[in-house]
Batch of 3 targets.
Target 1
Amino acid sequence: MKITKLGHCCLVLELSGATVLTDPGSFSEAQNELTGIDAVLITHEHGDHLHVESLKKVLANNPTALVIGNQAVAKLVQEQIADTVVTVVGDGQSSDVKGVRVEGFGKVHAEIYGDMGQVENTGYLVDDKFYFPGDAFHAPVKPIDVLALPVAGPWMRMKDAIDFTKAVKPRTAFGVHDAMIQPFFRGFIGNALKMFAPDTAYVSLADGESREF
């Protein structure tokens, strides 16, 4: 499995004959020029995960690409992008992309404060190996090989990232949801994970970097 991090939570997954783009949000632009995308996977509707103008460009460049998201994402996308049908995969549901299984876990965005930002959030297990949780720490009751680990945001502390890693027990994890962090500080996060969750190999992906997992 090859993963390219475009920025924040926008990734390109190349696995088992399918190419999947995740969360084309407002904190990255490289997705706007991509071709060869089989599916776009969207965890929730916040602008740093779903930027409608970017999604329009992605779909224009990849007219046969599936869009997969939960019910709230489907409603927003189908209202704002004409003739776009979203394959709904919410908590406990699944679909596939060219034979690659996509399974949904979780229902609610992590709390910021009270009801603020409490939208539907779905984490996705892709190909029974890669877990992309969006903005929540809902752990699927399944083995996880590679975890896209949120490491910063108004809804979390470093402790949350460490505890989630320890709960999920992936073989490997890398940081996402980190556009607000100075690049030099990402190394500190990696060192903390290595110290407190040593059973997981943690790697830091720079924006634009690819790695085989």
Target 2
Amino acid sequence: MQNTKSFEIYPLFSTPIAYASIDNDIPLSVIDNLEYYPYDDGSGFSSVDQNILLSPPFEKLRFEIETLMNSYLFDFLKFGEGRIAHTRSWINFHKYGHQAPTHNHTNSMYSGVYYFTSPENGGKLFFMRHNNDLTFVSPTVMPLIREYNLYNSHTFGWQPKPKDVFLFPSFLSHFTDPNMSQENRYCLAFNYFFEGQMGGNTGYVNLQVLKDDTKEQI
């Protein structure tokens, strides 16, 4: 008879991703009637307004997102100083066949995505780690995995629903499946930096994110 011992797994040095659902009362017509431009790679469209959360129709949603972001950083990750500062926010618009290719967010510390619409067959959202990232194996030896989970996956995905929001460190690579539905997929992407007095002794810094008065930039 096989001797099986119980044990615990600790997700040490993990990359926490926050997930929640946030209601909004923004009419879809407001989002649909924004001015968009196509991405150079033909993967979809972005709103011309790159500070969408600063617009009056999105004021309440911004408050909810920043409340969640503060809880993620200060209640869960237990940050003891600093404060979040909005740097960019824009809406991605994906028609049939469009997708978000693998990317991360530069010049940002924490990012997120909020789904206004997520049609059936509209595509999953995936996060990924690169093969040269050291986790549970080295990049030179990789046994076959018979069942993937949070601990052993190179990619991990969710099927988002309307009003879903995901928060994550900006360095984390992510992508979406193609939208294979006949409905448009609209999601809000946003970036936040950290500012204020942080650290001590030789590690002390006082950062300030300058406010950008330019509402629309490509």
Target 3
Amino acid sequence: MKLFQLTKSNLRKIIEELLQSAGKIIAVGTTSVRSLESLYWLGLKLENETLKGQPLVVSQWEPYENEATIGLKKALQNLVDFMDNNKKVELQFSTQIIIVPGYKFKLITGMITNFHQPQSTLLLLISAFLGNDWEKVYDFALANDFRFLSYGDSNLYLK
């Protein structure tokens, strides 16, 4: 489980960006994707009052076990309100979220990431984002000797 920190000013910038650019948020790296997507689920927990003194944590399968019943802006505003009510300037949370095919992305509309190993959870995240097109992208990378893993070639994926 990874611990993340997000300042209230950065959270407000994300909300402003959503309002100004019709929701165009590009994550850099799969960890950023998971972190940003977890913000929605934390905001939903606050809406449903299921946190009540518990740490801010998103479990691995939480998005698949719970229905998304509020909009993204409401979820993010719930986080700002939580920070205001608790006099916090920084949100600390952790996530175990796994993003696999079938996941409905809430926040990001694009990502920059390197090419990932076959049969990895990170490749599952890519296939969740691209659908069946992930195979075309990876076939092209393999056919053209792209480098995989850290310090390899990267790609920009957009919805």
